[in-house]
Amino acid sequence: MSTQTRGVVEGRRSPLCYVLLTTLSAALACVDQTSDSTAPEEGPQDVILAVSYVGTANPDPLEEYEVKVHLIDRQTREGGIPSFRTRLDRLRSGREFTISRRKPGLYYVEAQLDWTKDGSWDEFEPSSEPAELNIDRSKPAHMSIVLHDRTSPNDRGWLVGTATYQGLGASGTHQLYFVVQRPADFSTVVQVRAPSLFGSGISFGTNDVFFTTEKRVPAGTYRVVAYWDVNGNGAYDRSEPVGDRVPVFVSPGLPSVGVDIALR
Of 79, 81, 167, 225, which has the highest C-beta tally within 10 A? Predict the structure, then answer.
């Protein structure tokens, strides 16, 4: 074979070599496309929280509460307090809550159930233990949060509410009493007198009259009666303005707020 002929043959690819190179190129292209389609997006990520409650609170079954999640960046001290509303029975079985698009970093996390619905964090309200959460830049972050009672099962609760009276059957200044009763037999658990200036009594007007029982009521379900003691004998008489609220749920060491009663 001449030198010229040998160079042409040696410089030409064989059919087998061509097939192998074509197959390899297609496989690499497939790998590249697959990697591009499944690669997670880097940057801010969602935070997926599994929130649950473990405790002895005894709320109205239909009542909804706000759960606030304090999510603070450890480095910048910046963050926010996203929240969601739910019933306590749903929290007992657990509920998933997503906080969208948080930048990567190490965060301080603590959650609180706003039992009193006043927007503040009270020391007796159920809350979680402080924890740290690392948000990676390439995938969503997951975390479990458990809300615990800050009270003891034997602690007494208390009632907070108001009374109103716009009737014409009575007037003047008289003592206003609130009686907490057991619904089954109407037996009295606690009776308190509405606070008044120098103990002189209450004159109903356009403003509601505030009352609280302080921490005197065992956990349970009750009926609350309010009456205006017009004749001053310290007991309810049929002719006196009266109103009630039932059922009222009392939880260990927690206030039952919004016990508002209209006398008639």
Answer: 225
Profile the chain (264 residues) by mean pLDDT over runs of 10 residues: 42 44 42 46 91 95 95 93 96 95 96 96 97 96 98 96 90 95 96 88 86 95 97 94 97 96 96
Q: 65: which 2 tokens? A: 């509460």
Per residue in 148-170, pLDDT (tens digit) is 999 999 999 999 999 999 888 88
CA dihedral sign of residues 50, 51, 56, 57: negative
Of 54, 71, 68, 79, give the one whose Cα is nearest residue 120: 68
**Residue type at position 3:** T
Return the sign of the alpha-carbon dihedral for residues 81, 82, 84, 90: negative
Question: Do the Cβ atoms of 133 and 79 come closer than 8 Å?
Answer: no
The structural domains of the chain, ordered by start, are 45-148 (2.60.40), 158-263 (2.60.40)
Compute the distance between CA of residue 253 and CA of residue 157 in angstroms, rounded to an integer: 5
